[in-house]
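Contributing new records

If you add data, match the layout below exactly. Sequence lines come first and carry their own label; structure lines follow with theirs. Keep one chain per record. Anything else will be rejected by the validation script.
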Amino acid sequence: MKKIIFLLFLLFASNSFSQQKKDSIPRLKIHGRFAFIFNQSSFSNWVSGGENTVAGNINVNYDLNYKKDNLNWDTRIITSYGLSHISNKGYRKTDDRFELNTLIGLKTLKYWFLSFIGNFRTQYIKGFDYKKEPKIVVSDFFSPAYLTFGPGMLWKKSDDLNVNIAPSTARYTFVNEFFFWKIWR
């Protein structure tokens, strides 16, 4: 009996000393996803038609969330690029995107924040109109690019449930002048 009591005492003592202090919530949380998708299709002696293709896509999607005292800053980076090779047609861009979304808020009430929202979108490389011969360049890096920003109010109950109201946002569209100089000369 003494051995059992001594053993229980040891287990209780080791358990009470092994408990750690409760960790504070980290200020910066990073969640992300990286995906590489590759596919290939091949047809031989196919009566109904079809074209041989090889395609690949790269997708990156990251969320960065920063919290400290009354400050809340959420940022999302979304970027993707895809390319395919179609027999007899050559290489074609299938996906081309860079987008940055940011929302910063200063807490005023339990779930309410004064906020400022920003969004920037563009693409990486030239885009073509393949319906016309010779193919015509219709877009390029920073041609066009979109910038949207403005103040507002944010209701945020959790990281998964929020609503931003920004009644006076501005949107600017940028076009790289060098790009259009190359086309029109």
